[in-house]
């Protein structure tokens, strides 16, 4: 008998209903917040993901689900939705014509050619939100509070919001230099892959699962923000806290070690997990501010913030 490919699931009856219900509540919630819906192809030019997600990331180097065909154009199944959304909004002229911020939601399958294991599938479903055109701190706050409110609506469990920041693009670049310098002295003790990463993308070393790399990372320098960036971050976190704390379902943790697996973040970054008395789920999703991606894919430079939530991860965590 032919079986389903490794790392995939079938949604039958109850599971189908559960998934559809989640997607419906997601659309309903964000329609009410005046978000517009968007659906893009499941595959794109491979180049779109190489340029946006980053050619040094695991997603592009190891996990991209490439399609083989007779023409010269290289295609890949999308590993996430953000790049496709920006590509679509640029191509349709919406980035120019629509009033800002452009708030969009999308959902559907994404693909990563990973070693299948619990919580890591080769085809998985994402709920995705992007808010394009504003860069002020209150837009960070507004966006994150909306996401928290949605997760509170669908989760019977408590929610942990982990949050950090790259400060700004300049600070991120400085931090990258600090890390490169720190790792350069210890190069021989790093794994082979990380030795290649330290010049081009030292952030990926911080994500490495190799025990030797992990040990070295324990003493790696932290990002040092300037006063303005520090204040912006502290104010944003305390404003979010004030708005969400009355319900008591969500708590916030500042996690400076958090480095998201995508290259394009330039400011605030965040991640959600669900908790009950004894256990804490793995991440159910996360996102952050990316102020350069739109400019890289189009002629207009617009700041943006986005989030992706894993449908299967939410369903697993809720049960
Ligand atoms: Zn390593």
UniProtKB/TrEMBL annotation:
Q: What are this entry's molecular-function GO terms?
A: ATP binding; histidine-tRNA ligase activity
Q: Superkingdom, according to UniProt?
A: Bacteria
The UniProt record gives the binding positions of L-histidine as 80-82, 112, 126, 130, 260, 264-265
Q: Name one Pfam family in it.
A: tRNA-synt_His
Q: Name one GO cellular component term.
A: cytoplasm
Listed under GO biological process in this entry are: histidyl-tRNA aminoacylation
Gene3D superfamilies, sorted: Bira Bifunctional Protein, Domain 2
Write down the EC number.
6.1.1.21
Which InterPro entries is this protein grouped with? aa-tRNA-synth_II, aa-tRNA-synth_II/BPL/LPL, His-tRNA-ligase, HisRS-like_core, HisRS/HisZ
PROSITE patterns for this protein: AA_TRNA_LIGASE_II
Q: Which NCBIfam families match?
A: hisS
State the similarity comment: Belongs to the class-II aminoacyl-tRNA synthetase family.
Q: What is this protein called?
A: Histidine--tRNA ligase
Instruction: Supply the gene name.
Output: hisS
């Amino acid at each position: 008998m032919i079986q389903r490919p490794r790392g995939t699931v079938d949604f039958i009856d109850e599971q189908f209903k559960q998934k559809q219900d989640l997607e419906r509540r997601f659309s309903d919630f964000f329609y009410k917040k005046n978000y517009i819906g968007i659906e893009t192809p499941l595959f794109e030019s491979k180049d779109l993901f190489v340029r946006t997600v980053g050619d040094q990331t695991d997603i592009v180097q190891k996990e991209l689900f490439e399609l083989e065909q007779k023409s010269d154009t290289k295609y890949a199944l999308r590993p996430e939705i953000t790049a496709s959304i920006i590509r679509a909004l640029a191509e349709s002229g919406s980035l120019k014509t629509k009033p800002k911020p452009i708030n969009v939601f999308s959902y559907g399958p994404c693909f990563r050619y990973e070693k299948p294991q619990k919580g890591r599938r080769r085809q998985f479903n994402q709920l995705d939100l992007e808010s394009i055109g504003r860069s002020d701190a209150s837009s960070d706050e507004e966006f994150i509070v909306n996401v928290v409110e949605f997760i509170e609506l669908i989760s019977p469990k408590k929610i942990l919001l982990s949050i950090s920041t790259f400060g700004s693009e300049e600070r991120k670049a400085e931090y990258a230099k600090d890390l490169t310098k720190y790792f350069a002295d210890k190069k021989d003790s790093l794994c082979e892959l990380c030795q290649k990463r330290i010049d081009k993308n030292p952030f990926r070393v911080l994500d490495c699962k190799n025990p030797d790399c992990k040990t070295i990372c324990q003493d790696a320098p932290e990002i040092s923000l300037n006063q303005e960036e520090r204040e912006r971050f502290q104010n944003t976190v305390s404003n979010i806290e004030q708005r969400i704390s009355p319900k008591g379902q969500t708590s916030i943790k500042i996690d400076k070690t958090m480095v998201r697996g995508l290259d394009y973040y330039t400011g605030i970054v965040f991640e959600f997990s669900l908790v009950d008395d004894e256990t804490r789920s793995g991440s159910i999703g996360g996102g952050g501010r990316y102020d350069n991606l739109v400019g890289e894919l189009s002629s207009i430079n617009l700041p943006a913030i986005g989030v992706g939530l894993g449908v299967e991860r939410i369903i697993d965590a809720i049960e």
